[in-house]
Predict the structure.
Amino acid sequence: MKKLRITVDGKTYDVSVEVLEDAAAAAPKNTSVRSAAVSVPTISAPPPRPNLSAAGGGKTITSPLAGKVVSIDVAAGAAVKAGEQVATVEAMKMNTFIYAEIDGTVAQVMTRAGDMVEEGGALIQLS
């Protein structure tokens, strides 16, 4: 057992360390170091979830995350095209823009700026 004193972020600690092998005796002399190729698995992101659900014969645009509605960018009766921004939701001080995934007409705006929404919460009903 060796006793050591270490300092971390200005605070001093007394620690006891058990030496399992003598470093000089454990390392053989005149050895070469080999490198090995290591396979690292790749992690792919899941495909984006559509923010549409069928409800009452129309399509409901839903929030992909829980947060605060910053803006609703369309009004009832407005025609929207697929890819058009229809709302903005803020979560953790980051804005997420919500886009229409299909062409349609806004049948009903189901929330307003300042409202809190849950993940999957209805924002806009398209017909």
The first helix runs from residue 23 to 26. The chain has a mean pLDDT of 80. The radius of gyration is 29 Å.
